[in-house]
Amino acid sequence: MSVRSYRDLMVWRKGMALAAAVYRLTRQMPKHEEYRISGQMIRAVTSIPANLAVPQNLAPSP
To answer: Which stretch is the leader sequence (predicted)?
Structure first.
């Protein structure tokens, strides 16, 4: 399998799946936890696939 994009990486896809699962989980948390715990969980989990995509976006085009 040829990797042409960060979206082809299994780790990026799993990171996106984890992010979706965390979003679903945090919707079930009490509202008073929304900004404290839920917010931190969402920021942390969305940084995983975002950080994987950064190196490709910085690479010069051939």
So the answer is: none
